[in-house]
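TA notes, week 10

Several of you asked for a full example with nothing omitted. So below is the full record: structure tokens for the whole chain, then the designed sequence directly under it. When grading your own attempts, check the secondary structure regions first.
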């Protein structure tokens, strides 16, 4: 017979947990706390779902609360869209809406889900899907949109191959077996840490969030000397690549947000298109050089397009059901600004 704690968590329970997490932010009235405690005690699944939602929320805020996050000026406004130094009231309102959406997105059976342990398996996500997998050793892997990873655990090794996409790895310690993530051109080795690896571009990019990871590069069949990447740093998996500070905004992807930190608009459009069948297009390639900072719901290309249009005075063309086109509203005024 299945133990109660092993039961699958229904979507409605995940949704309720996310709603409670939102309601309990900041000052909470006593009657709300009593109602929350009664909900927790009503079913063991409620506590499990709430703990998962709270953990994901903590992960999404971790970097903004760090020294790196404060230096990057994202602080406790993780979903604030900004253009230069100007912040408008409309942006603040949208930021609040986005913040409320974020906490309830890890759900069973929907675009975000949790998978049970496996010793050897292949996991993949569809476009727009984010999935967290609990591995046999207790480690966890969160797969981003359109990602494929192969997992093989043996008595002497913990090895994963990230074939495409991006993933976050939360590694539990094991003195006998290092945790190895293989990617084109090398490997990332960890023992107890939290880090991201992305192969959406070449060379692959590694982000160390907690602890230290070892980067082992292989070029033209020869192994280069390994490098250590410390917490709060990111680096390409290239033999001569220098590390640089993490962008807290970019590290929020596990919460279903697309984080941008002085990102060229062309790159931002490519990123949001990875999550959606409806694609965003730029009518003028000069637009691709515009710089965007902020966070957007990854699975809402229409809201992304509206926000970008408002920030840069662009027009939004939705005449096609599958494409959203952004164009300069006043081409004559736009061109000189980009020179």
């Amino acid at each position: 017979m299945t133990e109660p704690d092993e039961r699958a968590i229904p979507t409605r329970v995940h949704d309720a947990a996310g709603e409670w997490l939102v309601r309990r932010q900041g000052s909470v009235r006593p009657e709300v706390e009593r109602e929350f405690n009664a909900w927790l005690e009503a079913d063991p699944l409620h506590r499990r779902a709430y703990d998962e939602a709270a953990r994901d929320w903590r992960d999404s805020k971790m970097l903004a609360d760090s020294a790196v996050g404060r230096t990057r000026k994202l602080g406790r406004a993780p979903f604030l869209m900004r253009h230069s130094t100007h912040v408008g009231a409309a942006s603040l309102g949208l930021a609040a809406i986005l913040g409320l959406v974020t906490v309830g997105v890890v759900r069973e059976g929907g675009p975000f889900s949790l998978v049970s342990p496996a010793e050897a398996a292949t996991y993949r996500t569809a476009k727009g899907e984010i999935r967290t997998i609990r591995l046999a050793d207790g480690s966890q892997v969160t797969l981003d949109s359109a990602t494929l990873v192969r997992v093989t655990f043996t008595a002497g090794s913990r090895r994963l191959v990230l074939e495409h996409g991006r993933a976050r790895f939360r590694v539990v310690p094991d003195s006998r077996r290092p945790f190895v993530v293989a990617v084109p051109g090398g490997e990332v080795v960890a023992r107890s840490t939290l880090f991201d690896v992305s192969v959406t571009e070449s060379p692959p990019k590694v982000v160390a969030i907690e602890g230290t990871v070892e980067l082992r590069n292989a070029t033209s069949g020869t192994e280069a000397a390994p490098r250590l990447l410390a917490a709060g740093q990111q680096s390409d998996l290239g033999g001569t690549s220098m590390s640089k500070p993490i962008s807290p905004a970019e590290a929020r992807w596990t919460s279903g947000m697309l984080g941008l930190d002085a990102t060229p608009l062309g790159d931002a459009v490519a990123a949001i298109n990875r999550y959606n069948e409806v694609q965003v297009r730029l009518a003028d390639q000069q637009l691709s050089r515009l710089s965007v900072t902020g966070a957007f719901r990854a699975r809402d290309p229409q809201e992304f397009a509206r926000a970008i249009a408002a920030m840069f005075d662009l027009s939004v063309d939705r005449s096609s059901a599958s494409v959203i086109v952004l164009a300069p509203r006043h081409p004559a005024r736009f061109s000189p600004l980009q020179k």
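The chain has three domains: 4-102, 112-245, 255-337. Use that as a sanity check on your answer.
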